Amino acid sequence: MSSANTLTRITPKNITDQEFFYGHKACAGCGGSLAVRLALKVLGERTYAAFPAGCMAAVGFIYPQMAFTNNAIITTFPGVASMASGIAVGAKALGIQNFKTVAFAGDGGTADIGLQALSGMIDRGDDVLYICYDNEAYMNTGIQKSGLTPFGTQTTTTPAGKNIHGSKTQKKNLFEIIAAHDIPYAATASIGYPQDYIDKVQKAAQVKGPAFIHVYASCPTGWGTPTETSVEIAKEAVDCGLFFLAEYENGDYRLTRNPKQFASVADYLKKQGRFKHLSDADIASIEAHRDHKWERMRRMWNHQ
Amino acid sequence: MSRPVKQNFIRPTHIEGFPVGPQFTAGHLADTNAGWRTFRPVVNHDTCIYCLRCYLVCPDGTIFKDNGKIAVDYDYCKGCGVCAHECPKNAIEMVKEQL
Ligand SMILES: Cc1ncc(C[n+]2csc(CCOP(=O)(O)OP(=O)(O)O)c2C)c(N)n1
Ligand code: SF4
Ligand code: SF4
Ligand code: SF4
Ligand SMILES: [Mg+2]
Q1: How far is B41 from B43, CA to CA, in rounded Å?
Q2: Which of A98, A212, A291, A292 to pair with A79, CA 20 to 30 A apart?
Q3: What's the domain range around B45?
């Protein structure tokens, strides 16, 4: 085994040809399925993958269609981190070597109902990579607002009307909640920057102990975007500053992308059905929230 | 084989024929996804520079390397168009499926 600093970087040229998430029934252009596909290609065949209730579980395991070619299991909605912990220590107790355990959960399964189990997993120091694919709502059950749904989003539980313009709450600071556990490694990523995501999965896989990646993953069905723009829209979220790319390692935060200038927030929002009701004043308040967050991140965190 | 292929599935006629417990064979595909497609991605090998961007971003993993050429598994491609949209050379055309 090579050590972390002599690792060969995984790129589309040398990544395994094997597909581990194949023939699944995710909607065409599903960003979450790309996040799962790429991570599994980095982690390889000797990976146990656990999925709580959510879109990836729903589209991956439809008897008799089994879309995973590695070991994979569905867990309870709040319990993916507990299940993954159990797999990791169970396999170790059986003397199994050279394997990885990964949990893939949605934003609802992570930032809301699964948060307690995840906190426990990190606290115990279990050897699990936890990846949250964030499509900013409970998609599998029909687009309900979650703790990671941003301000102003139209969902079925936060409809846009005359007086209330979609979700009234801001996105939880999930990355910082996880980092506050003093986890060995945490990162944010976006499927709009797939190589950066691959690099972070590769790095996280080297950690002996808990690691966490929060990956921004578009959902054409829930966002009201054309299927072909799924990667582009996830890149634009980063470019306009509404999502950020960062790492937390050895107790330090670092922005891994620090745009000199942000692309237009209005352009990003107006392309999506879920935001099309927003007024100029709503957009101005979203920009102000972004600027406040970035001012703090740039002041407190390392960056170039 | 780097990708699973469709297999014959004979639906059990009795409850005893179904798997016991939650286990099932990894990569067992009883169905294709081809019927979802309205447009089919067609690669122009003259303009393709083999940058592998399409391979990287396909959510379904249905683009693969075929001896130095880009190929598509039309059994499982859903026709989302991400590959064509992301191709820097416009070397993928989305062509309407004929029924
Ligand atoms: C305890 C419990 N409550 C509710 C549900 C219903 N449920 C299944 S999936 C889901 C939404 C999942 O949302 P998220 O975690 O964001 O994943 P996504 O579907 O967006 O991929 C809900 C509410 C459940 N399965 N179990
Ligand atoms: S609803 Fe969204 S997250 Fe769920 S499978 Fe469809 S595109 Fe993917
Ligand atoms: S993205 Fe376009 S140029 Fe690059 S390999 Fe695919 S078809 Fe060829
Ligand atoms: S159309 Fe979509 S599913 Fe088909 S090969 Fe292109 S990216 Fe993959
Ligand atoms: Mg979700």
Answers
A1: 7
A2: A98
A3: 33-96
**What is the ipTM for the molecules in this complex?**
0.96
- Return the pLDDT at A2: 43
Q: Say if B5 falls within a structural domain.
A: no
**Ligand 4 interacting residues, C-beta cut-off 6 A:** B 41, 58, 60, 62-63, 72, 77-83
Give me A270's structure tokens: 């107006």
DSSP letters of A224-275? Answer: T--GGGHHHHHHHHHHTTSS--EEEETTEEEES---SSPPPHHHHHHTSGGG
> Helix-strand-coil percent breakdown of chain A, rounded to 5?
40, 20, 45
Radius of gyration of chain A from Cα atoms? 19
Q: pTM of whole model > 0.95?
A: yes
Which CATH code fits A4-300? 3.40.50.970
Strand ordering across the sheet containing A211-216: A71-75, A47-52, A100-106, A129-134, A211-216, A185-190, A246-249, A252-255
A246-249 and A252-255 beta bridge pairing = antiparallel
| Residue B72 near residue B15, CB atoms below 8 Å | no
In a domain, B58, yes or no: yes
Overall number of domains in chain B = 1
Q: In this structure, is residue B45 part of a structural domain?
A: yes
Mutate to test the pocket of ligand 3, among B48, B57, B94 (most ligand atoms within 8 A of CB): B48
Q: Percentage helix, strand, coil, to 5, in chain B?
A: 15, 20, 65
| Binary contact (A69, B27; C-beta < 8 A) | yes
Residue type, position B66, single letter: D
Which residue's entry shows tokens 């084989």? B1
Rg from Cα positions in chain B: 17
